[in-house]
Design a protein that fits this description.
Order of helices and strands of chain B: EHEHEEEHHHHHHHEEEEEEEHHH
Number of strands of chain B: 12
Number of helices of chain B: 12
Structural class of chain A: alpha+beta
Bound molecules: flavin-adenine dinucleotide, iron/sulfur cluster
Strand order of the largest sheet of chain B: 4-5-8-6-7
Largest sheet of chain A: 7 strands, mixed
Strand content of chain B: 15-25%
Strand order of the largest sheet of chain A: 3-5-1-13-10-11-12
Oligomer: heterodimer
Shape of chain A: globular
Helix content of chain B: 25-40%
Number of strands of chain A: 31
Shape of chain B: globular
Number of helices of chain A: 17
Helix content of chain A: 10-25%
Radius of gyration of chain A: 27 Å
Chain lengths: 754, 315
């Protein structure tokens, strides 16, 4: 196994001779997406006309289906089939893993009469047209025997237990440390359920090509989706060809598959015809996972100089009764600030709500909403600037494990951000600054998010036209994967970007873990670099061994690649000439990346600092973000444009978490109240003024051979806290129950005399 | 969506005739509300009469005021120079609603007749007296943060979500209609909508099949105008409360089953009360449902701000 030391060596990416690495290259598929030319899974043209499937969601949260009357629906014109648990085709029982190395077990649809959450797909109609299917779906009559359910998180905190296999982490003696502290804080924050509300709902187009099930679906990870479907259908994994070429947002919600995939495949087999199935916007809310709500208790103890002596964050959260997902909102705090006495942990409540699961920056997105506000409150108690407080608690090594940081530029993010943003203009006394009808305030918060590398493979080939093709079972969920892989290929093989083709999103391509946990670009890109290096070597060997090549006889190590040429000193020829002459079938090479054996010897994260200026209308409690700046340190940046988009997108999500976004549970029904994009509030353009993200120069050689890190989730981390802190600075009101909507701000504003 | 038939009316007369002759018929204009509700199986018309292209879109002077055709789009009305100059409260109200795409499609008539945004009304698995009379009210003991505070009943606590209608009520607009028998009617807009009482599914005083042809504005009242809306985000969000001020007249939005003319405020102000006292008069009858208590305070504060803004506008 390799060592991170191996990654310190130079490579074409670090040399950057082609000049495309790091540049703000436009997303290749951007024009295709905005003009409608990119076929999303539901829009893929099948080989023959498709039938349309519509799912029907359960109207209870817990119980059984006792009767299903499908006769009237079946009798409707154009209806091809109506399924419930009573007549759905046989599938492998849930959790089956016939192939021992399947990355996902079976996920049968309509498995039995049990209803485990509101909105669970319990019936399915296929018709010749979508309208016929929807019309007939209203005529399916299901009778339920309801059973008692509990979906009230806040009323169930007393039932919370340690998540499976976890216990609190205590360093030093937290209680004693807190007791001995001169300045203390003990406050509780709450965050609501959030839905992913990707622009593109989960959807599948499926057909059978002989014994092979071909599915185009919208999913972040190719292999688990392919394996899970094969397990469900009880067929060979190779008998499922799964494609996911264009994806309209994932955010973690498409890290798994749903019944659209299973039902489309089953119905296509039954009808011997392609079938399309999509979730509706309303069905997405319950039928797919959500970020669970949290309650977070933060306790801080510091000396009068602002040095933390004790720090604790304990998170209560929930997941589905049959699940075990835990929103690890306390974990990020283990690496953020120095404090000798520390206590972090989680408590989990099982509820009869739909499945909780990962959402962009799982853990950090929720957790920073408490601790980063607590730091603001503590700074105020101490009469310290919030940045100064953080600097005083900057650890030299990971405060929990003692491991060295691979790279940590948090302080630089804060100080450079402060300067660029004009932090010195902040009046530490809240409620002092007016601009017309608005009270104006500034806030900041730190950002941290772990950085990861997973195993991946990739293949590269070059053809007689000099076109380099990257092939990888990777996905692009709107983040720019196509584009950054092309940049890596262009840089590695010294060809212009236009000479690179990228094929991803296909189960037949060399496997990569997909998009998630902000590991995508680093993981896929590192495998691509390896494949590219191997292809370079193959090309170099071809040239130096070919008497017809001007490079003949040169040392392989001396061969350079740039501008479509292969060269040794002043001898060169074009790649096209070489391949045409010496490898007319083209040339290919494989590559892979594995985490280094010693990678865990370092504490490795990405960092940032958010700065925000808000206006609060003291009459109504409405908040608008006037300015926001994020400064980030996240390794070498592959593409200045896509990275900035990821970071600003994350920041906007942070704004939403602070003041707009969240779903509420009607515990009588176990259902979420906001079921469309008019009711489920995400931040819109009009809520935001200036917004920018700046990336510091950084190379983290311990991360991967490219020295890059993830940016996809970092922007979410801390952004909401900066907004909340700015709200406090604007009006002097602390609301610790997110989102900070007008109704929550008003009582404080009135008390404050506004 | 259930199957339905469709026709495009050639004239207003034909439209009402067709509506009278066809059971289960409904007019459709921009479709931004009706189509959504049909897709969700909340509205189930058997026949649609498309009135969007009827020549009812003109905005023209009438009797010192302005006649706005029922099929004028929300965007057209908000952009009309007469409206902007003489009835700024109306332009402000319209522009605070929906999104540009919606306003481009939405008609004046359709906007008046849009249905509530109550979440329980939209979720067909929940009880709702408005959607399924007699099934109960899901919101009453539910998540009723945006429920009505004035004029509600135990059968329904929903609000009327229109912004435009609030300004029109403050401007004392009238509605012109064509009845199913072909007669033209004209009555105050404030009398168009009903309070929920025991029959929240009956929302207006229109006869079934009656077509709204125009809204008529009297000359603008003396004094300033202002529209203020509080909402959960800056755009594309229904209001938590809104206030329209036109001279000495004031109307409240999103607080009741209909746009609420605040006559008690007007009278108290005329009698010399301070704005705070006057608004207190109107809101002393306010009742809340548990999660919407803040709306009383919010409405009062918004009304004072709107009055001050209108005063500034007049100066
Ligand atoms: C996401 C979203 C957000 C919105 N936000 C706001 C907001 O913030 N503020 C706001 O005010 N509105 C808002 N709206 C509502 C929007 O303004 C209405 O949907 C629109 O005004 C309806 O007009 P329409 O022409 O599309 O009506 P349609 O949908 O065509 O019809 C609505 C109703 O009016 C009837 N009708 C139409 N024309 C006539 C006629 N001439 N005579 C008699 N009956 C007729 C129809 O039969 C139907 O019952 C929002 C809508 C959406 C979808
Ligand atoms: S408030 Fe009215 S619309 Fe809402 S659930 Fe109750 S009856 Fe239905």
């Amino acid at each position: 196994m390799s060592s991170v030391r191996d990654w310190e060596a130079s490579n074409p990416i670090k040399e950057g001779r082609q000049g495309v690495f790091g540049k703000p290259v436009d997303r290749y598929e951007g024009p295709l997406k905005v003009t409608g030319a990119a076929p999303y899974a539901y829009e893929v043209e099948p080989p023959s006309p498709a039938a349309y499937g519509v799912m029907i969601g359960a109207e209870i949260a817990c119980g059984r289906i006792v009767a299903a009357d499908i006769a009237e629906a079946q009798a409707q014109p154009g209806v091809r089939l109506v399924w419930t648990h009573a007549n759905a085709p046989a599938q492998a029982p849930k959790g089956t893993r016939k192939h021992p190395r399947s990355t996902s077990p079976s996920r049968p649809a309509l498995e039995d009469n049990r209803v485990a959450y509101f909105g669970q797909p319990v019936a399915f109609v296929v018709a010749d047209t979508l309208e016929q299917a929807v019309g007939a779906s209203h005529l399916v009559r299901l009778s339920y025997a309801e059973e008692p359910q509990n979906s009230d998180f806040h009323a169930s905190l007393a039932e919370a237990v340690d998540p499976p296999g976890e216990e609190d982490v205590e360093i030093g003696d937290f209680d004693a440390g807190l007791a001995a502290s001169a300045v203390k804080l003990d406050e509780t924050w709450t965050t609501p359920i959030q839905n992913h509300v990707q622009m593109e709902p989960c959807a599948t187009t499926a057909w059978w090509d002989g014994e092979t099930c071909v599915v185009h679906t919208s999913v972040q990870m190719v292999k688990p989706a392919q394996h899970g479907l094969a397990e469900t259908l009880g067929i060979d994994r190779d008998a499922v060809r799964l494609l996911t070429r264009y994806i309209g947002g994932g955010f973690g919600g498409k890290g798994q598959t749903y019944d659209d995939l299973t039902l489309a495949a089953l119905a296509a087999r039954e009808l011997r015809q392609p079938v399309k199935v999509a979730f509706t916007r309303r069905q997405m809310m319950h039928g797919t996972i959500h970020r669970p709500a949290t309650v977070q208790r933060v306790r801080l103890g510091a000396d009068r100089d602002g040095r933390l002596n004790a720090m604790s964050i304990v998170t209560w959260t929930h997941c589905h009764r049959d699940g075990q997902f835990t929103e690890h909102a306390s974990n990020f705090a283990r690496s953020l600030y120095a404090a000798p006495n520390r206590l972090t942990g989680h408590r989990l409540v099982k509820l009869d709500l739909p499945g909780a699961g990962p959402m962009r920056a799982p853990g950090e997105a929720s957790g920073t909403l408490s601790l980063e506000c607590a730091m603001d409150e503590l700074a105020e108690q101490l009469g310290l600037d919030p940045i100064e407080l953080r600097i005083r608690n900057e650890p030299e090594a990971d405060p929990e494990t003692g491991k060295p940081f691979s790279m940590r530029q948090l302080v630089r993010c804060m100080t450079e951000g402060a300067q660029q943003f004009g932090w010195d203009r902040r009046n530490p006394k809240p409620g002092q600054v007016r601009d017309g009808r608005w009270l104006v305030g500034l806030g900041m918060a730190a950002a941290i998010r772990g950085n990861f590398l997973l195993p991946a493979k990739c293949s590269f080939s070059v053809d007689v036209d000099g076109i380099v093709t990257v092939r990888q079972g990777m996905t692009d969920i709107g983040t720019g994967t196509y584009t950054v892989l092309a940049q890596i290929a262009a840089e590695t093989l010294g060809v212009p970007l236009e000479k690179v083709r990228v094929e991803i999103g296909d189960s037949e391509l060399p496997p990569a873990p997909g998009s998630g946990g902000q590991f995508g670009a680093a993981t896929a890109g590192s495998a691509a670099l390896d494949a590219g290096m191997n292809l370079r070597k193959a090309l170099a060997e071809l040239a130096v061994n070919d008497p017809a090549s001007p490079l003949h006889g040169a040392a392989v190590e001396a061969v350079a690649f740039h501008d479509g040429l292969i060269a040794v000193e002043n001898r060169s020829e074009t790649l096209v000439d070489l391949v045409r002459r010496s490898a007319p079938q083209g040339l290919a090479a494989e590559g892979e990346i594995r985490p280094a054996a010693d990678a865990r010897n370092w504490s490795q994260h990405t960092y940032g600092a958010h700065f925000c200026e808000v206006g609060v209308d003291p009459v109504t409690g409405e908040t608008r973000v006037r300015r926001m700046l994020g400064v980030f340190a996240a390794g070498r940046i592959v593409n200045a444009k896509t990275a900035r988009s990821q970071l600003t997108g994350g920041m906007i999500w942070g704004v939403a978490s602070a003041i707009h976004e969240g779903n509420a549970v009607d515990a009588r029904y176990g259902s979420l109240i906001n079921q469309d994009l008019a009711q489920y509030m995400v931040t819109v353009q009009a809520d935001l003024g200036e917004l920018d993200a700046v990336m510091l120069d950084e190379v983290d050689d311990k991360a991967n051979p490219l020295g890059i890190k993830g940016v996809g989730e970092l922007g979410n981390s801390g952004a909401g806290a900066a907004v909340a802190n700015a709200i406090y600075n604007a009006c002097g009101v602390r609301v610790r129950d997110y989102p900070i909507t007008p109704d929550k701000l008003l009582p404080g504003l009135i008390r404050a005399g506004f | 969506m259930r199957p339905f038939t469709y026709e495009r009316a050639a004239s207003a007369d034909e439209a009402v005739k067709a509506a009278a002759a066809t059971p289960g018929a409904r007019f459709i204009a921009g479709g931004t509300n009706l189509l959504d509700l049909m897709k969700l199986d909340i509205e189930r018309p058997q026949h649609l009469i498309d009135v969007a292209r009827l020549p009812l879109g003109a905005i023209e002077p009438a009797g010192g005021g302005l006649r706005i055709g029922g099929m004028a789009t929300n965007s057209q009305v908000a952009a009309d120079p007469q409206v902007r100059r003489r009835y700024p409260v109306l332009a402000q109200a319209i522009l605070s609603g929906g999104s540009p795409q919606l306003r481009n499609k939405a008609s004046v008539a359709g906007n008046l007749l849009q249905r509530t945004r109550c979440a329980y009304f939209y979720d067909t698995s929940k009880p709702c007296n408005k959607r399924a009379p007699g099934s109960g009210c899901g919101a009453l003991e539910g998540l009723n943060r945006n429920a009505a505070i004035l004029g509600q009943s135990h059968a329904c606590i929903a609000t009327h979500p229109s912004d435009m209608a609030v300004a029109l009520v403050a401007l004392e607009a009238e509605v012109e209609t064509l009845t199913p028998s072909g007669e033209a009617r004209r009555f105050p807009l404030a009398e168009l909508h009903r309070l929920p009482g025991e029959t929240p599914h009956v929302e207006t005083h229109l006869i079934p099949g009656e077509l709204i042809t125009a809204v008529v504005l009297p000359p603008p009242p003396a004094g300033g105008q202002a529209y203020r809306k509080a909402r959960d985000r800056a755009s594309y969000a229904g209001g938590l409360a809104s206030v329209a001020v036109a001279g000495a007249r004031l109307a409240l939005g999103m607080v009741a089953h209909k746009p609420w003319r605040a006559t008690q405020v007007e009278q108290a102000l005329a009698a010399g009360a301070t704005p705070a006292e006057a608004i207190g008069e109107e809101l002393k009858d306010a009742a809340t449902a548990g999660r919407n208590d803040f709306k009383v305070t919010l409405t009062a504060r918004l009304a004072m701000a709107a009055l001050a803004q209108a005063e500034g506008d007049a100066a």
